[in-house]
Amino acid sequence: MSDNRGVVYLGAGRVEVQSIGDPKFEAPDGRRIEHAVILKVVTTNICGSDQHMVRGRTTAPEGLVLGHEITGEVIEKGADVEMLEIGDIVSVPFNVACGRCRTCKSQDTGVCLTVNPSRAGGAYGYVDMGGWIGGQAKYVMVPYADFNLLKFPDRDRAMERIRDLTMLSDILPTGFHGALKAGVGVGSVVYVAGAGPVGLAAAASARILGAAVVMVGDFNKDRLAHAAKVGFEAVDLSKSDRLGDLIADITGSNEVDSAIDAVGFEARGHAGGEQPAIVLNQMMEITRAAGQIGIPGLYVTEDPGAVDSAAKQGSLSLRFGLGWAKAQSFHTGQTPVLKYNRQLMMAILHGRLPIADIVNAQVIPLEDAPKGYEIFDHGAPQKFVLDPHGMLGKAA
């Protein structure tokens, strides 16, 4: 190796591609580990969760190597790795999980109890997630490889579908988790808040789960136009502050069976200012009695840029009594990617889920990552896929 490059966070609004150290078979605390592999990164994506850090809306330290959406080729493996071989192409769940603790054994890998000394749950290149080095780079180390990695069954077939398969590391399972936890099934009427990549992945998941109507709401005209182009009902939130009325214009009813919050804590209200609880409160208003609400959108325990002192500590002004009175179910938290990624891989390989087109995946070189961050931050209807070694161009 010795030519490793990575996307480094340098402070609010600043990222830069820099030379970084080669990955080692070491845990963040410096312990030698043999259950890991070194990957040559095939694809690594820019995520909306990364943008929260880059905007300065978390306590992320300067110098952090970003990137938790990783697909790669195994080029080295530790002595304890038995199920993978050099040359395998694999998808990396963004969750770092040991596979041995109580939560991992129950497939709740988003809250692994051992990989992060500060809280349950670990992730690559993310604030407060255990110090694991991010994968927006040319090479990266992945621990507990036999447990974490999803091997693609055929290299050539995988490279043909790599723009779709790269979404398995995070946004597709995250959207699917949100739809599933919102109770989406055959005939469901569904509303998705947010027409970004996770929102579109949730909408695509609702469709494959059998929803009758899938609506996607946003203020961003370009994102709404793309959502409509790929077959969803676009809800232009700028037209009214009464979301139920906008939904009724489409379905005839101001309530839905299932609602999915793909926006998170940087939500904005109709007046334009930040209202971090507005989406959650709207979800309770429009979801029918005994309906379900999935919340894959990110909420944080510390937000230095929040609009008030309570929100800075993750305390939001929820109208929770309404949700209680309507006997609604809520599900939050990081998606346990391993619970879903194999099934979703099969849907992709067999042509059932063209997720790259749905989220409008755009492939760019690793060195162009800062420009990708800038464009994405301005609300472009695109999902940027970084190609550190030019392998996607060669595959095409």
From TrEMBL:
Q: Does the keyword Translocase apply?
A: no
UniProt-listed SUPFAM superfamilies: GroES-like, NAD(P)-binding Rossmann-fold domains
Question: What cofactor is this protein dependent on?
Answer: Zn(2+)
On whether Oxidoreductase is a keyword of this UniProt record, the answer is yes
Tell me the domain of life: Bacteria
Pfam family, any one? ADH_N
Looking up InterPro entries in the UniProt record yields: ADH-like_C, ADH-like_N, ADH_Zn_CS, GroES-like_sf, HCHO_DH_non_GSH, NAD(P)-bd_dom_sf
| Domain Alcohol dehydrogenase-like C-terminal residues, every copy | 197-265
Q: Which residues form the Alcohol dehydrogenase-like N-terminal domain?
A: 35-153
The UniProt keyword set, sorted, is:
Metal-binding, NAD, Oxidoreductase, Zinc
- Known NCBIfam families for this protein? fdhA_non_GSH
- To which protein family does this belong? Belongs to the zinc-containing alcohol dehydrogenase family.
Q: What is this protein called?
A: Glutathione-independent formaldehyde dehydrogenase
Question: What is the organism field in this record?
Answer: Sphingomonas bisphenolicum
Gene name as annotated: fdhA
